[in-house]
Design a protein that fits this description.
17 helices, eight-stranded mixed sheet, 2 domains, Rossmann fold, globular, alpha/beta, six-stranded parallel sheet, 45% helix
């Protein structure tokens, strides 16, 4: 790649901590950071984003952090407490996130902060414009920065800009509940290339364009937009499958896998952020229903549900945390015996070796979101299954369902059918389990995160700007 790549995301792929009185900037692992690290390194480009809460650091510590970020070619956009509250918590996570995940019921009654959303997006666009050189490729990411492409187009009309939406683009009927729907779509259309995970989200966006602006994409996915051409494409994100397989084979992971495995107890595993889009309550109810429909599984199956805390400052998430904790207690209280508890609930992050060991030990992996842009847990699980065993139960409303067709696909709203799917998975013959898992592994290995990034960037680099 000859052109520099300027990556623009809400968060920088780093964690800032203080150790021994000195700030330490550590690169993040997984997800976007993994997929974009190679093109970031290869192009000699920059990564622009929020470094996290650094307001409590002394001026000397801040200068130290800036030096470390500069060595990583990372440009920090520091946000005030007010900007974090309004731009990030109230607009991005309390309005745009539920809209994109079909949860109008989670919207606050009063929304404020759209002006701050615009001003923060403008700050990101200003930072890109400040560091831009002719020929650079700019890649903007996700729902927090929907306005950046258009704002950047105003500042650098000839820039080559890509935008990728990591969450679903919702059905227009849901998206149109936003009063400023035109303004948000206009923001995205400042890009030359707009990417989505699935054909469904791509189709929803095309329908929104048609109804809002009376413009239609041609059969190549190209839209004529205000003297420019904008390409709409489908680019399903993935994981570093080879890295997962390698780390899953580590001796410490193998040892922990044996600890979590029992010849007398089948293991169900769920690993999610504690988000209402992940379908955890219905998953718990499906387990309860399984034990009612198939009482032979009592004291022979258990669920380890890891729920990683997230967005605790948003009211809807605090309410949801209480809802899940209450339901776990209710089900365990009704069904547990002196020697058996059906649900082991872990409300915290877990170390990488524990995560990989749970993947390897699981008889059945439950990935049952009510709506999810992709869901990388569904891809991490088969990547880690170096034994070619285990069964994936996957919601048809996860983006990953389009690719992982050898999973058992379920409608998570149908609790009885999900319960029967768990029973089917628990009783599946070894030959069928292994056949399905081998095909799942082939899929995630062939279409990994590096292929996702290179495919998008090759498409963007090959586009011709038109005036």
């Amino acid at each position: 790649m000859d052109a520099r790549l300027l990556i623009v995301s809400n968060r920088l792929p780093v964690t800032v901590t203080v150790e021994g009185g000195h700030p330490v900037v550590c690169p993040s692992v997984g997800g976007l950071a993994t997929g974009l690290q190679a093109p970031h390194d290869r192009s000699g480009g920059l990564w622009i984003g929020w470094p996290g809460a650094v307001e409590g650091l002394t001026p000397e510590m801040r200068a130290d952090v800036d030096r470390q970020l500069d060595a990583m070619r990372a440009i920090p956009i520091c946000l005030s407490d007010r900007e974090v509250t309004l731009f990030y918590e109230q607009v991005s996570n309390a309005v745009l996130w539920p809209i994109c995940h079909d949860r109008i019921d989670r919207l606050p009654l009063h929304v404020e902060g759209w002006d701050v959303y615009e001003s923060v997006n403008a700050r990101f666009a200003d930072a890109v414009a400040e560091h831009y050189r002719a020929g650079d490729l700019v890649w903007v990411h996700d729902y927090q920065l929907l306005r950046v492409p258009a704002l950047l187009r105003e500042r650098i009309p000839d820039a080559r800009i890509g935008f990728f939406l990591h969450v679903p683009f919702p059905n227009p009927e849901i998206f149109f509940t936003l009063p400023n729907r035109h303004w948000l779509v206009e923001g995205m259309m400042g890009a030359d290339l707009v990417g989505f995970h699935t054909r469904r989200y791509h189709g929803h966006f095309r329908a929104a364009l048609r109804r809002l602006f009376s413009v239609e994409a041609d059969n190549t996915g190209t839209v004529r937009w205000r003297s420019r051409r904008v390409k709409l494409g489908v680019f399903p994100i993935s994981i570093d499958a080879a890295d997962f397989a390698s780390r899953a084979a580590a001796p410490e992971v193998t040892r922990k896998t044996k600890e979590y495995t029992s010849s007398s107890m089948k293991l169900l595993v769920g690993i999610d952020r504690l988000d209402y889009s992940k379908g955890i309550p219905r998953r718990l109810m499906a387990l309860k229903r399984l034990l009612a429909l198939h009482p032979e599984w009592r004291e022979r199956v258990r669920l380890i549900q890891v729920a990683v805390p997230t967005r605790d400052r948003v009211d809807a998430y605090r309410r949801f945390r209480r809802e899940v904790s209450s339901l776990v207690g209710q089900i365990n209280g009704e069904l547990a015996s002196p020697t058996w508890t059906p649900i082991q609930y872990i409300h915290r992050s877990i170390p990488s070796d524990v995560l990989l060991a749970l993947y390897r030990a699981a008889d059945v992996m439950l990935v049952t979101p009510l709506r999810d842009g992709m869901n990388l847990v569904a891809k991490e699980f088969p990547a880690a299954r170096i034994d070619d065993d285990g069964v994936l139960i996957l919601s048809e409303f996860a983006g990953a369902a389009d690719e992982l067709t050898d999973a058992i696909l379920v409608n998570p709203y149908d609790v009885d059918a999900t319960a029967e799917a768990i029973h089917r998975a628990l009783t599946m013959e070894a030959g069928e389990r292994q056949h399905r898992m081998k095909r799942l592994r082939q899929t995630v290995q062939a279409f990994d995160v590096h292929r996702w990034a290179s495919t998008f960037l090759e498409e963007l680099a090959g586009m011709k700007n038109e005036e």
